[in-house]
Structures
1.
Amino acid sequence: MLNFLGIGGAFNPEYGNNSAYIKRDKGLIIIDCGSTVFGDIKPKIDAADSNDIHIFITHTHTDHVGSLGTTLDYVYYVKKGKANLYFPDPKIIDMLIMMKISTNHYIFNSELTNEVCGLTVSFYETKHLLDNCYGLIIKDNHQTICYSSDCSEITLLQDFLQGKINTLYLDVSSNESKVHVPYKSLLTLVPNPADRSRLYVMHLDKYFDKKQAIKDGFNVAERECDAL
Ligand SMILES: [Zn+2]
Ligand SMILES: [Zn+2]
């Protein structure tokens, strides 16, 4: 369901900032809008209905919001529409005001669950480096996926192992990180090959060994521009 614009950690711009999008007819859902995202998402915005663009922000680290202001203003000034912005804490509006993005340029929504482009998209709280960090659960009639964004532990691990979540996209770290899930611990937490085949690692630092992860039975999220 997800197409990845970037799969990199904050300090790994070679992979692009971690971000994904979903295209549904003329509607466009964007998950996070880090510093590298605008350049990659611009053609998708150009192809979308200017009033059917939905941006979900998981937290306000710059690798997740760095080009949010530019993206909102692009939809407003160039596409002559208003993007819908989703984040559970209205304080994000203050951040955007500091960036000189007028509140008239987008439509803000702080609900935890939203019906968007035929999908149900819900925020859930995660443990990361600061308050107000969220992952997303995205459901359609056939499947439920989870996008962890950034987290130090897998909040919905049991739901995943019990099959209530069909596919998990999880941030991992090659080292003993306190803000992302250390890959070493994932090997213990998800021992079953059938479960590993439903899990995609993402938000990768430059030392992360993708080939080893595949050998271990996991998937590695693939950046769209690398797949072409
Ligand atoms: Zn991040
Ligand atoms: Zn973060």
Note: The chain is about 25% helix and 30% strand.
2.
Amino acid sequence: MTHSCTEHGHYCHICHEEALIAERKQFVKERVEMWMWNNDIFEIYDETRDLDDEEKEELLQAAADVVTDEASKNQLSNLAFHFGVMIIIPEGAKT
Ligand SMILES: [Zn+2]
């Protein structure tokens, strides 16, 4: 993806980096939304098992941040443990 910037010049590293980060965030957001829709831990497992640890952590953490029920939190926690990555399960379900 290329990004031209009116503020910093035709090609700008700063805004290019920012655009990549924004794109990454959007990717994670959409992935997690789809998981929440399907609500299937095996789908999450299938889609994350071949990723590197950093990506696993990022995606599982993003999912943990949005799930609200204890069962899903436990499943994500167990999956993270299985993969050997560290995620923080937020306390207190908003029910
Ligand atoms: Zn710029």
Note: The beta strands are 4-5, 9-11.
